Amino acid sequence: MSDSFSVDAQVANWPFVYDFIVNYFDSKSIPHKDILAITLASEEVFANIIHHSYLNIGGNVEINIDYDCKNYIMIVKFKYGGSMFDPSDDYNVNVRESAGARKLGGLGIHIIKKFTDKIIYDYCDGSNVLKILKKVS
Amino acid sequence: MEISKESREGFIVYSLKGRLDTQSSPEFQSALEEGFENGENKLILDFKELEYMSSAGLRTILYAKKCIDSGAETEGDEEVKTGCLKLINVSEEIMEVFTMTGFDEFLSINEQ
């Protein structure tokens, strides 16, 4: 059975989102390593919604979470307003750069892609709908 | 997240407990900034009790690395680093975050 949670897009609310995701997947007896991976990707999505979609002024984020136990797939869906934010767009970051050559930040989308198996993005009726999926290892 | 700080054999050791994430990393960065202002440039970050780290944590660690490296001095043609940054007791899960982002290439992690 899926579960939903609505929250204002504020950094201070991330711990509540974290607990929501971790507690849900914990209750499905999913290995810690996989829960950590989907949670990490979810934090990057949530941070991008705060800073890029809502430009740090807040706005509603609806989070729906589910586990497809037949196919062993964890699913987290985010529905939010503001500007379009599609992490499934082509985006490459050079992870071989030295510390001196790197700029601070900019790794969020890279982490979303590396720690999930599939990203599905849609924009309809003024809302962004972003779904991230990870198969349990 | 809880941050504790102590001086040990010429190093400043920050021990982090809990989660280094988008909410807690500004607090850690403030602690580092204060230390850099006081000339502390030999740091050990002890991750023994750190459970989780996101890109916000990476950003803070990169900030620390850049600050320390920018304090290098030049002797003749050679650049001599006066500071250093070491990470110890990094768990397998957090190590994966460093590896996937290439941070393992330039950080001293779990080295003796």
Overall description:
The complex is a heterodimer of chains A (137) and B (112). Chain A has a 5-stranded antiparallel β-sheet with strand order 1-2-3-5-4, with helices on one face. Chain A is built from 3 helices and 5 strands, in the order E-H-H-E-E-H-E-E. With 137 residues, chain A is α+β, with helices and mostly antiparallel strands. Chain A has helices at 14-26, 32-53, 108-115; strands at residues 3-8, 60-68, 73-80, 118-124, 127-135. With 112 residues, chain B is an alpha/beta fold. Chain B contains 3 helices and 7 strands; from the N terminus they run ββαβαβββαβ. In chain B, the strands form 2 sheets. A 5-stranded mixed β-sheet of chain B has the order 1-2-3-6-7. Chain A binds chain B through residues 11-12, 14-15, 18, 32-33, 36, 39-40, 43-44, 46-47, 95-100, 102, 104-105, 107-108, 110-111, 114-115, and chain B through 19, 21-23, 52, 54-56, 58-59, 62-63, 65-66, 69, 93, 97, 100-102, 105-107.
Secondary-structure topology with pairs:
The complex is a heterodimer of chains A (137) and B (112).
Chain A: E1 3-8, H1 14-26, H2 32-53, E2 60-68, E3 73-80, H3 108-115, E4 118-124, E5 127-135
Antiparallel strand pairs in A: 1-2, 2-3, 3-5, 4-5
Helix pairs in contact in A: 1-2, 2-3
Chain B: E1 2-8, E2 11-20, H1 25-37, E3 42-53, H2 55-69, E4 73-75, E5 78-80, E6 84-88, H3 92-100, E7 108-109
Helix pairs in contact in B: 1-2
